[in-house]
Input
Amino acid sequence: MRFLWAALLGLATALPVDKEPSIEKGPTPAVVKEPVETSVLSAAEEPVPVTPDRGTDVPRLVLYFQTTHDALGQPISMLPLITEKNIALTHLIVCSFHINEGGNITLNDYPPWYPLFNTLWNETRLMQDAGVRVMGMVGGAAAGSFSRRTLDGNATTFEHYYGQLRDTIRAYRLEGMDLDVEQPMSQAGITRLVSRLRADFGPDFIITLSPVATALQGGGNLSGFDYQQLEHDVGRHIAFYNAQFYNGWGYAGSTSEYDTIVRTGYAPTRIVLGQVTTSDNGGDYVEPAQLNETVRLLRAEYGQIGGIMGWEYFNSAPGGTERPWEWAQIMTAILRPGLVPLLRITKDIARGLVQAWQDSLAGGGDMIATAVMPVTPTVDYFAMVNA
Ligand SMILES: *[C@@H]1O[C@H](CO)[C@@H](O)[C@H](O)[C@H]1NC(C)=O
Ligand SMILES: *[C@@H]1O[C@H](CO)[C@@H](O)[C@H](O)[C@H]1NC(C)=O
Ligand SMILES: *[C@@H]1O[C@H](CO)[C@@H](O)[C@H](O)[C@H]1NC(C)=O
Ligand SMILES: *[C@@H]1O[C@H](CO)[C@@H](O)[C@H](O)[C@H]1NC(C)=O
Ligand SMILES: *[C@@H]1O[C@H](CO)[C@@H](O)[C@H](O)[C@H]1NC(C)=O
Output
């Protein structure tokens, strides 16, 4: 049944399922029946303090978190990125938010407030507590977010759809927004969006864009507008660029394209080397040893680079869906060994996470929390207790 839901709802790409669904395994832990504080991290809490990102926390290790559920409809935990050893993640980008003409903002296919995402939003708070900056991303490959009838529209249209984005940033305490413009948008439109985010969220809000690498070299682009013009107009508001060095738009197996971007006028610390985390996620995958060499050469040239970005978490090589955090361990070794954040998990937090996990199962026909049967999470939250 869960296979069917997952297939119907398209929650994850078609993944080989090479293990028994653990929902069938073992007795339900007694803890599930205990009264649980209704929300581990209630919406009423104070906002997390945002540490300014002014290019000083380089080199960044940035990871997109798009696939939120596995092929069985079970939520995927991001916490191993903190609890596994030797990972120094700096930015996690929750995605993909879409602006839908005539409708409401969605996170992938569903409203972000669906209980389906309870695990996601509980865990992002914990990531923030551990010092990881949690941002959102709007746009991506699906069309619609930046059209003349949505965020690139006239003043009335813009206010309507931008308001949905603004409210979402506030509701989920996102510390930044990545603008992944993969359809043509006007120069005035992107400038307006960047300026408005800065005006509404203040100087510490992290605004990034994620162009294909060629677009930062005056070459091929997906966004329509001119990045050098954008840089000239509002570059002071853009923290860094998650440049996509993949899928035919760039390649990080050598330094030459990064060098061209720097020659074009971008400071090396503002250019993050974007990679697919596995060849399953796109073309131009670079093996870690070779990426290490590129990074070594770039640092020899420029002293420091902006960092490494990965698209996306859930199936990263070499661990795959079983151990996707291994990618981040390897990148940490390349980029920033020793700079590891600390997560504090109490028993109460673990208990709440079990509840959130169960509420996040993608079993309900309306995608609203099922919690019909006690199911043992595939994540051992109690093993993470350290405080
Ligand atoms: C958008 O969501 C709000 C509540 O979050 C709801 O009141 C409104 O009807 C929704 N609009 C559309 C077009 O779905
Ligand atoms: C703004 O654009 C919308 C379409 O998105 C259109 O229906 C509306 O008439 C336009 N308003 C003005 C004042 O041009
Ligand atoms: C972006 O690419 C389009 C073709 O897809 C081209 O017409 C346009 O001139 C390019 N813009 C810039 C600023 O390079
Ligand atoms: C990266 O390369 C350096 C220099 O060649 C080497 O010392 C280091 O072990 C390599 N790191 C990784 C993670 O491959
Ligand atoms: C955390 O999970 C609990 C239990 O599912 C839920 O009630 C609460 O709304 C979630 N918190 C957030 C911030 O999503």
User: Anything to note?
Assistant: Residues 221, 224, 226 surround 2-acetamido-2-deoxy-beta-D-glucopyranose (ligand 3) (CB under 6 Å).
